[in-house]
Amino acid sequence: MGYDIERFVGYVNEGLLCSICRDVLEDPLQAPCEHAFCTACIHGWLVHHSNCPEDRQMIDASLLRPLYRYMKNDLNRLQLHCRNREHGCGMVCSLESIDRHERECEYSQIPCSNAGCTVQIERRNLDGHLAVCEYRSRECPNGCGYTILSAEDTQHNCVAELRTELELLRSEMICRVEEAKHEMESRLDSQRRHMVQKESILQNEIEELKSQMSRLMSDVRSLMAAERQHQQELEQAELEKREL
User: Fold this and answer.
1) Contact 61, 49 (CB under 8 A)
2) Count of CB atoms within 10 A of residue 46's CB?
3) Closest listed residue to residue 94, CA positions, set 75, 108, 114
4) Please, are residues 138 and 148 in contact by the beta-carbon 8 Å criterion?
5) Which strands sit side by side in the sheet containing 36-38, from one edge to the other?
6) Which sequence ranges does the entry mark as zinc finger (TRAF-type) (predicted)?
7) What region does 122 belong to: left with phi over 0, alpha with psi -120 to 50, or beta?
């Protein structure tokens, strides 16, 4: 839907009106036949129709284009009243800047910022409402440190609240200790399995070294026996040489 034409000051050119809702164009699009529409209006029309609502020429959503620049400039220069006029706002500004003004307008109805409060109030009166809102929060005056709602003043019990908090902390601590315990046990089991594997590997290596040492000693004894045999043969040869 477009901007209500009654909000505008002075004459509004017919070409700046939506061909569907007949209000002043809002977020406008233009068909190849040069008729202009509000974006929401034309997309809603094309759900059930495939032609221009003015001249019945066939159109498709992919053929819609932004408004011509000169028309867009004329549209932006139009002057209109703030939508909060009935609440007391007397601002009149250009269509180009109306959204920015209305986002900040002191007469806009905004929700109370306190959780649980459903009151809608003018922005200019918000501070006064917050000061008396039954959902406003404040720190407990008795020093327990809790933030309480004004509506809960009569039900607030510092000792009960602190006892509840203590129980929650105790439960949380127990959970954390259990988690740390399980994690430590898991790490120890992992390290234990790793050590057992390393021990098995080392034991195999020791057995292999023993086997190699045994073979080496056998080879040494064989070499020593061969050396003695060789020495005896040399001595025998020397003795025979002397006899000759």
Assistant:
1) no
2) 17
3) 75
4) yes
5) 36-38, 28-30, 65-66
6) 101-144
7) beta
Tokens, residue 60:
């498709």
d(CA 229, CA 218): 17
Domain ranges of the chain: 5-104, 109-149
What is the reported pTM? 0.52
What tokens does 170 get? 């105790």
pLDDT in tens, 208-234: 999 899 899 988 888 998 888 898 888
- Summarised one tens digit per residue, pLDDT across range 98-111 is 999 999 999 999 99
Fold topology of 5-104: Herpes Virus-1 (3.30.40)
Q: Which structure tokens are listed for 200?
A: 């098995």
106-133 burial, b for 16+ CB within 10 Å, e for fewer?
A: ebbeeebebeebeeebbeeebeebeeeb
Amino acid (1-letter code) at residue 111: P
Residue 83: how many other CB atoms lie within 10 Å = 17
